[in-house]
Amino acid sequence: MSSVTADHVPASHGHDDHDHRPHGWRRWLFATNHKDIGTMYLIFSFSMLLEGGVLALLIRTELFSPGLQFFQPELFNQFTTMHGLIMIFGAIMPAFVGFANWMIPLQIGASDMAFARMNNFSFWLLPIGAILMTASFFVPGGANAAGWTMYAPLSLQMGPGMDFTIFAVHILGASSIMGAINIVVTVLNMRAPGMTLMKMPLFCWTWLITAYLLIAVMPVLAAAVTMLLTDRHFGTSFFNAAAGGDPVLYQHVFWFFGHPEVYIMILPAFGIVSAVVPAFARKQLFGYASMVYATAAIAILSFLVWAHHMFATGMPVTGQLYFMYATMLISIPTGVKVFNWVATMWRGSMTFETPMLFAIGFIFVFTIGGFTGLILAVAPIDIAVHDTYYVIAHFHYVMVAGSLFGMFAGAYYWMPKWTGRMYNEKLGKLHFWSSMISFNITFFPMHFLGLAGMPRRYADYAAQFTDFNQIATIGAFWFGLSQLIFLFLTLRCYAGHGEPAPAKPWEGATGLEWTVPSPAPFHTFVVPPVVK
Questions:
Q1: How far apart are CA 245 and CA 386, in angstroms?
Q2: Where is each Cytochrome oxidase subunit I profile domain found (predicted)?
Q3: 10 Å Cβ neighbour count for 138?
Q4: Which among 36, 62, 112, 163 is annotated as catalytic?
């Protein structure tokens, strides 16, 4: 696929631009341009990444040594809960929507997203949800402390902070649904002439499939938290066992959302890595069609495995067997992707600029996370390590090294197109190696802690777990501080420092986004390009 060429690309209207472009705060408050909205999403998600990261460091500070050091268990549980919610709904998901807003119209030759005003509205819901979540720390009883999964019956007993979380989840979910509808309509209806579905860059494919997942599962989450709300305030008893409800029902409804959600947070990263690896291997992506089908297979299978999160609830053996085998099955299309990336690199003319380093780092560390997931799919093992640090190690290898490293690969790859400036390559590499080493120092010891039986979400622990916890805490602070390098690099590019970027800064890059000048003009593809 990757050899899409444009027949003619109209020069951007450099001068006409300024006549129609809003200025000052109006440009951002009333933004309808997909690039401006993409930028706002990325800034918002990075600020939420910092907030969630501070909560993570507070958690690790408490866990540096056994005994209660700084925080009471109640506050510690608020930190663990809100760290998870903020990272998922505030950092990872909006960041990928920011990438989609910026890149999908550029990659398919569209002038903008399909619903520009809805795009603006879906963004401005995010700060409202974020403020609600953050404010919940300051209401009586503090924030939600029932875990990011908000399991009943604990969530039925929380103070008003829980209601703040429920409303925030509703608002952030509505934003996601609107963003997803926008992406589906844009991809299906606004491709340039000649851009068939099977010529689209894989990033557009992964986002199209992710958008369908979002539309399917966000209403399920809305239903789950609405039932929580009515149980808490309106006398229903869906999940209250004392009144005849079933707490395990909540887990079924939640994980029917929660498992596809895991793929919502990783599929766009697959798309980014599928753009970066061919560019720096200077080869076409190996097995383009199989990548598309594998992405679709992952999405379909993700609906069939939800109860592997619930092996410890006492489900019948037949249920355990089904969910165990279904979960193992999902590793096959994921493996197809990993082998295709490796085959793309095989005998390519590879260079190792920062985007490629993050892409290779992604493949390596995501594969480790995938293997630990396969181990957790085995029901008897899962029952033994359920709710221990082994699970935390597994999903951070998938989420941090997966989603976050994928995003960094994409950010460095497209930053010249966004800012018109080349980032500092030495600092980029420093950011990669610093993140990669500190990430593994933080999370690899957690596998051993989990296998030794250290439970998650506890503010205190037995003395034999001290050494690994101290290593993890040191790694966590190192990892957190490493992200400030990225912040500095990005601000430097946006401030206009660094080499001016050419329209196509990477020799091996292909696709329509490299046919427009850097930085991408305010209005692109006023006349659609024709794709050969």
A1: 24
A2: 28-532
A3: 10
A4: 112
261 is catalytic: yes
Active site residue 112: yes
Q: Is 346 a catalytic residue?
A: no
Residue 452 in tokens: 């030794």
The pLDDT of residue 15? 42
User: Whole-angstrom Cα distance, residue 532 to residue 529?
Assistant: 10
- Whether 51 is catalytic is no
From 165, 206, 334, 510, the catalytic residue: 334
What does the angle CA 190 – CA 195 – CA 201 come to, to the nearest 5 degrees?
95
**Considering only the top CATH level, what class is 14-515?**
mainly alpha
Residue 65 designated active-site = no
Active site residue 62: no
Structure confidence by residue, pLDDT tens digits, 279-316: 999 999 999 999 999 999 999 999 999 999 999 999 99
For this structure, is 456 an active site residue? yes
pTM value > 0.85: yes
Instruction: Tell me if 390 sits within 8 A of 368, measured CB to CB.
Output: no
Residue with tokens 């679709």: 296
Query: Angle formed by the axes of helices 354-377 and 389-398, to 10°?
Result: 140
Identified catalytic residue from 41, 45, 136, 148? 148
Q: How many residues does the structure list for the chain?
A: 532
Known catalytic residue: 175?
A: yes
Domain residue extents for the chain: 14-515
Is-catalytic flag, 518? Answer: no
